[in-house]
Amino acid sequence: MQEQIREWLEQEKVDIFLGYKKIQGHPLPHCFTKDNLDETDDLIVGNARYSLEKMATKIAAEHPELKIGLLVRDCNQRALNVLYVWNQLRPDNIETISVNCCPSKLKEHGDCSYLEPEKAAPLKMMIGIDNNMDVEAAEEFGQEDRYKRWMYEFQKCLKCYGCRDICPVCFCKECSLEHTDLIATGSVPPEIPIFHLVRAVHMGGRCIDCGLCEDACPVDISLRLLYRKVNDIVSDVFDYKTGTSADQSPFNMLGEEVTLELKPI
Amino acid sequence: MDFKIIPSVCSYCGTGCGVLFQVMDGRLVDTLPMKTHPVNEGKLCIKGWNLHEHVVSDKRLTSPMLKKNGHLQEASWDDAIQTTVEKLKAIIEAHGPDSVGVLASAKITNEENYLVQKFARAVIGTNNVDHCARL
Ligand code: SF4
Ligand code: SF4
Ligand code: SF4
Ligand code: SF4
Question: Is residue A263 part of a domain?
């Protein structure tokens, strides 16, 4: 892999390559360039997962012609597809090398930080929403109980905006979560449940279920589950599986015609 | 095109979360939590997430300021320290050492904080020492 990346840089197939390197004992994202070719020997995959595609998006915004190579896990690839759909990156300018991710009992090794999700504490199991639950299990709670459990989760929110800041597909110049007409300011927790529901609605057709938001949430709110539910609806109504291809999204109305049709409910 | 990721430690509070600075073409453009840092394990509070903004803010003070004719003006360290000494001496003489209080900081080292309390107790002569978080 190192050799291939070295070749790509040498032959100018890519101008920069985003991968990982061990720095001060930590596997950190690193930008490899032609000026420092020997450094490619130190390229690692690393078991900590960062959104390299979000970095690529930021770089491309300032250097639109730059050819960017990056290491991709499955989740990075899905995010890239969404970024192509939303014209944040140009597929012609991106080259990827896939890595062995998704640790599973079925294989010896997988490079990912999302190994075994932590087991929820007893209090959270009793009155909140367990992060490891699937949508179906969460829907088994009665409506009132379910509402109370979600509100318990939301009221922990510190309004750090980490879920948005780390998300590979949150790229808006102006974010609704900071819009004073939509969400009142000046208190923690923020206005709930609207703060979390606004973001959940925006993640319809956009969230690629990477779980980085949940990883970054200091208070362990079950964000991934919430967005999974939203995207189940997107899948049921529009037959659109977010991130699986770089095809037009039902929510992206730019272009000549809308190609996806509403499915009868 | 130059893009670097630089590991550092958040200087906003005593927790000391691990952060990564993203530097593009010599400009600090963004902050990320360090996922493998033992203190914060990939999480930050809102202050940590926005570190880059306070580093590059044009409101940031880069030199001491002295009030002259009712306006704050940039001054040299020598002038600033000299003025502070004169004023503190005058206040202590007129109202006693307990008229002065000293606030230590989360952003300086343990040893510097030790010196701060030593300065308050041994030099000024007061026990009025507290932490900046109680400001
Ligand atoms: S939360 Fe919504 S408005 Fe804010 S950046 Fe994400 S998609 Fe955009
Ligand atoms: S799982 Fe979270 S971070 Fe990942 S795409 Fe969805 S909302 Fe963004
Ligand atoms: S990461 Fe968690 S605590 Fe921070 S704003 Fe998002 S939901 Fe709230
Ligand atoms: S990120 Fe927040 S909690 Fe962590 S050191 Fe900075 S100010 Fe303190």
Answer: no
